[in-house]
Amino acid sequence: MKIKQLSIFLQNKMGSLAKPLEVLTVADVNIRAMCMADTSEFGILRLVVDDPIKGKEALEENNFLVKITDIIGIEMNDAPGGLTSVLDVIRDNLIDLEYLYAFSHKKEDKAILLLHADDIDKLIDVLIKNNIPLVSAEEVYNL
Fold first, then answer.
1. Whether residues 76 and 65 fall in one domain
2. Closest Cα to residue 127, out of 82, 81, 95, 79?
3. Quick one: which of 10, 74, 101, 106 has the fewest CB in 10 Å?
């Protein structure tokens, strides 16, 4: 149920994003979803890849600082209000999200939302109790 996400810490300078992506290309690791956050000094590149262990090892061999974090994925309606309805359930259950990112995929009218919270197990329980469909790690890795 939990998806392994790679968090890569990068210097905030021109060209720093290309280097880890090149490493993953050479290692034949495919990116399924990505999100970039930055400050004035550094950035965090968050990736979901088809083989997180292989990706982490390749990046570390090339001197990148990488952390594996558990996140979850849900399937939501890809229509106005789809995200709002999910966020309302999360807010109403007093869960504090740290970040999220979404992408569309082959299923018509559906999108996948990737979420991270301090208490990921409580988040999973709330989503299940509210009939919000979780997406398995294997489904995301194999998109």
1. no
2. 95
3. 106
Task: Record the tokens describing residue 102, joined without a space.
Answer: 């979404």
Q: How far is CA 52 from the centre of its chain?
A: 12
Q: What value does the CA radius of gyration of the chain take, rounded to a whole number of Å? A: 16
User: What's 118's DSSP letter?
Assistant: S
Q: Indicate if 56 and 80 belong to the same structural domain.
A: no
Measuring CA to CA, which residue among 88, 90, 51, 53 is closest to residue 68? 53
Structure tokens of 40?
């004035």
The boundaries of the domain holding residue 50 are 3-69
* Tens digits of residue pLDDT in 77-126: 888 888 999 999 999 999 999 999 988 777 778 899 999 999 999 999 99
When divided into structural domains, the chain yields a total of 2
